[in-house]
Every structure is written in C-alpha cells, then in structure tokens.
Design brief:
Strand content: 15-25%
Number of domains: 2
Structural class: alpha/beta
CATH superfamily of the largest domain: Ribokinase
CATH topology of the largest domain: UDP-N-acetylmuramoyl-L-alanine:D-glutamate ligase
Number of strands: 19
Shape: elongated
Distance between the termini: 25 Å
Length: 462
C-alpha cells in the first residue's frame, strides 16, 4: 500500500475496481472502510451518543455500517437519511443496520457523522440537504466527516455551498483526495486521518510531501564537493543576503554572492564575487545559481538573467527573474526550478500562453510547457514536474506570510540543488525544510530568524 498518494475521484474508482477485479465484493470493501472509520469514531465518542447522516450512495452505505459497529460497541446511535439507499451495497448495509431511520434535522446528540455524500460529489448540495446538514451539525458538539465533507469538491477542495459546517475530524477512506490538502475546503476539515482499505499504488498519482531523508556529507567531502552556489545580486541586495543566509544552513558547502559591488551588510562568512557575471559563472565548480531575489526588472536585470540562463549548470528562478522570463529565453536545456507565488504564476501563465484555473493546474501546465519544475508557493503549495509528477505540501504555519520568507525558501531550494539534488527533489526538500523551520521558529518571526531555524529542520531529516 502507498499511504501518501493523493487520488482524484476517477483514480479512486479505478483503484477500487482493481480490488473488485481481484475478488473483493462491494459490500466487503464497504465493511472494511466503514469498520475502520467506526473505530476512530468510537474512540472520539467515548461512549457518547452518535448521529449518523446517511446519503443514498455508497458513502451513505458506509454510514449504515458505521452505525451498526457503534451500536455493537454500546453507543446510542441515531440514523438520519433524507433519501432511501440507491445502490445495492447501501441497501444491504441498511438492511443489516435494521434499526430505525429518521429524516428529521432536529436530532440532538454528542457526535455527528457526515456520510451524506462523499468523494463522488461534484455539484452543490440541493437546498434541503444543505439545510439538513447545517442543522444537524449545529446540534452536536463534535463533528466527523467520512471521506470528504459533503459539499466540498473532492478533486479541487472547492466549497460548493455557502455556510457549510466545519468538522473536528475528517476520515479519508483508502487514499488522500486533493480536497484534503487544498484550500478552501481543507480549512473545514479539522484533524485528518487516513483509513487504509488495501488500495495499491496508483501509477502517476500525486504524492503528499513527507519528511525527506537527507544524509550528512561524505567523510571525504570538501566545500566544492558539497556544492558551490552562486546567488546573483541586484538592485535590492537585502533579498539576496536573506537567500544566502538560508542557503548556508541548507547543505551547500560554499555560497557566493555574485554582485556588482560589495555590500557592507554582508556577513563575513559570505563571499562576494564582484567579477562580471559571465566570468563568475564560467567557474566549472559552480554547481547551481539562484537569480531573482532583489534582482530588479530593468534592462540590466534582463542581461543578468540572460547570462544565467546561458551559462548556469542548474538554476533556481525566483521573484523578479520570473517576471522577466519569456519562453524564448529557455532555448538552452538545463535543470531549472521556478518558485512563483500566485501573482508571479499568473504572469508566467500569460507569458507562456497558458489558460488554466487554480494553482495546481497552472503549475502543472507551466512545468510541461516550460520544461522546468515549478514550486507554486502559497498556503497550499504544489510542486509540478515536466514529466507529470506532482507533490502537494502539508500545511505550514501561517506565520510564514511575512515579507522575505520567499527569499528564504529560494535560498534553501538553491542550496539543495547545489548539493546535487535534481530540481524536483530539491523543491520537495526545500518546501518541507521551510515549513519545519517555521514550526520551530514559533510565532511572528523575521525572515532572518526563519533562516536560523533551517539547521534544526535539516537535522530532523537525518
């Protein structure tokens, strides 16, 4: 089993069909999934009363099985069902439940379980079902959603109805769905737990970002073998200094600022190279280059970007470099990682003629068209590769929404690229390290304080 894959509704149906083709019946699979969910609910209910809202499909069938398991465990259970079961498996699950069923939204209790509609729903709830859902949720102190909360689109995380309730716990059945890790729907789900049901690895599935494994340098390493990183300076040197600070903490053996002139604020441990950029980039030991933080957007900045694209062995493009980038500038093939925020991603999509909705779709299209890895950063960051690979980041502290945190992320990513990681791996490592550093930094940190926590995050990966 692969417990970190993220599946679309279509992929999930195909994965379930593979289980059926192997000999498992729909009822058997429903029993496995619902029994696993019921155990979580039994624990949080702790003997208290439970109300289960069942829909007409197999998600409703899960609800009837959950109700049966909780009744067996000694909980007082009420089942609410506005519609009769419409599938054979749901009908069988209701028959086995054998208890009473009400259509009233006036039921009160301790724990509410939403099994109205699951991952197959792609349209808003009808008004009467939305009202029933809200009324029942409001009359219970603890709320659990099974698979995907009703009214949230499984493949996008879109909230399809107004005033949907928030949940304390969401139990994903079989595999994570995109809604579990995508805003705005994710914000309504509370804690999330995965209930395994035997789903096999799905080829081409997106992956949920996890803690990377980063080994210490080899015993015979020196600064150049660990990776020489060049950071191109520009009109606003502070951004490059932030990136350099983060890069020094993220694994590279040698970080150079490639600037027109020295800056008096540059720490002693950061070397400034004032030679013309083309000359600095000609150094065969230069493993990777970061360009963009503080670069500017004038003609001189465009020349620097052209030189970096022409000579770098591997490149991270951030900030101003992304606003200057055009398709014709990518004629030379080299490993590139782009790290746009939403505004920069929109600008890139215009430049590359991409029409797509949402961060994930835009990032995937840009990666394919541009031939580069795209780390589209935001509260639900996504990493897309030209070959179709996709990774979603887990939620990071919202304290990251501070000026300069993007420069820190770019520095970490460039450092990982300089150590020899490919752009997709470097992006995944950097995004995790960035979020972990923020968790360790606590609330209301400065970008420099964030960079200072990167070594602690890196140590957690060994």
């Amino acid at each position: 089993m692969n417990l970190r894959q993220i599946l679309t509704a279509e992929q999930m149906r195909a994965a379930e069909q593979a289980l059926f083709d192997a000999g498992m019946s729909v009822c058997e699979l429903m029993d496995v999934a619902a029994s696993g969910a019921a155990e979580w609910i039994r624990r949080v209910a702790a003997g208290r009363s439970v109300t289960v809202l069942c829909g007409p499909g197999n998600n409703g069938g899960d609800g009837y099985v959950i109700a049966s398991r909780l009744r067996e465990a000694g909980n007082a259970v009420t089942v609410v069902a506005p519609l009769a079961p419409a599938t054979a498996a749901a009908q069988e699950a209701k028959r086995r439940w054998g208890g009473g069923v009400t259509t009233s939204g006036a039921v009160r209790g301790d724990v509410f379980v939403d099994c109205l509609f699951g991952s197959g729903l792609a349209r808003p709830l009808v008004a009467e079902h939305a009202l029933l859902l809200r009324d029942l949720a409001a009359r219970h102190r603890y709320r659990v959603a099974v698979d995907v909360p009703s009214g949230i689109a499984s493949d996008t995380g879109a909230v399809l109805n107004e005033k949907l309730p928030g949940y304390d716990l969401t139990l994903a059945l079989g595999a994570w769905k995109f809604a579990h890790w995508s805003l705005p729907g994710r914000a309504l789900m509370g804690q999330m737990r995965l209930v395994p049901i035997g789903i096999a690895r799905v080829e081409g599935a997106a992956q949920l970002l996890g803690r990377p494994q980063i080994a210490a340098p080899a015993a015979d390493c020196h600064k150049y073998r660990r990776g020489l990183l060049g950071i191109v300076g520009g009109r606003m040197p502070g951004a490059g200094l932030l990136a350099a600070q983060a890069a020094q903490h993220a694994g590279a053996g040698y970080v150079k600022l490639l600037a027109r002139s020295p800056d008096p604020r540059t720490p002693a441990e950061v070397v400034t190279e004032t030679a013309p950029l083309a000359q600095a980039l000609a150094d065969p030991r230069m493993a990777a280059v970061l360009i963009g933080p503080g670069l500017g957007r004038d003609g001189a900045a465009r020349v620097l970007l052209d030189e970096a694209l022409a000579q770098a062995r591997a490149l991270v493009l951030d900030a101003d470099a992304l606003m200057l980038l055009a398709p014709a500038m990518l004629a030379r093939k080299l490993p590139i990682l782009a790290t746009p925020h939403d505004g920069e991603l929109e600008s890139l999509c215009r430049a590359f003629g991409i029409i797509a909705e949402g961060r994930r779709a835009r990032a995937a299209a840009l990666a394919k068209v541009g031939g580069m890895v795209v780390l589209a950063k935001g509260p639900d960051s996504v990493i897309a590769a030209p070959d179709g690979r996709l990774a979603l980041g887990t939620p990071a502290p919202s304290w990251l929404s501070v000026a300069g945190s993007g420069d820190v992320l770019a520095g970490i990513a460039a450092s990982r690229l300089a150590t020899g990681a490919d752009p997709f791996t470097a992006a995944c490592e950097a995004l995790w390290l960035h979020g972990e550093a923020a968790r360790r930094a606590g609330p209301a940190f400065t970008p420099s304080q964030l960079a200072e926590r990167v070594p602690e995050a890196l140590a957690a990966c060994r």
